[in-house]
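Annotators were shown the component list below and the corresponding predicted structure, then asked to write short factual statements about the assembly.
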Amino acid sequence: GAVVSQHPSWVICKSGTSVKIECRSLDFQATTMFWYRQFPKQSLMLMATSNEGSKATYEQGVEKDKFLINHASLTLSTLTVTSAHPEDSSFYICSASNPSQGFYEQYFGPGTRLTVT
Amino acid sequence: KQEVTQIPAALSVPEGENLVLNCSFTDSAIYNLQWFRQDPGKGLTSLLLIQSSQREQTSGRLNASLDKSSGRSTLYIAASQPGDSATYLCAVKEYGNKLVFGAGTILRVKS
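Structure shown to annotators:
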């Protein structure tokens, strides 16, 4: 149980374009989803927290207009990187939880490798 | 602001050795502490989770301890194997459900 998937697993896009990453909880309803970014040889940094049906809460220094997060259903959250630049190239990982159903831990997806050329 | 530090940053050991990875955190007001494993280019696999009221957790060859008052945790790996080679991440959960990660220890077990 508690499986989280991400799609795509890797994506290459051109500078200036937008790219959408999906995060799905496959066997439980995720009231809360988290988006992290990981640069090479660095740890995970929380970008934002999203609760189903409400606006995401962004961490300090993360541009909410650049990283659009939508959590419209209990099993799906999306992260859209708008007007991507090479410095946005990173490994993006999502996690999901639902404390009210006993899923107190954050269950992590396999990650999405974004390369902006 | 919570800061999590992991020492050493990298470790290379021969197969069969017992080893200890260290994690320290600056704010003891945590909900729990979790150790993860990350293989190159992959997501995270949860290894052990210690609640703030607990002192240690064990799973197979892994044992994790927590000293909340001093802000320290250790992950002990017994009889290391080449398959243990990965990056090990420590994360503390703050009240509010946020995880703060350390930078990780890159472990290489040589056969």
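Statements collected:
1. The two ends of chain A are 37 Å apart (CA to CA).
2. The first strand of chain A starts at residue 4 and ends at 7.
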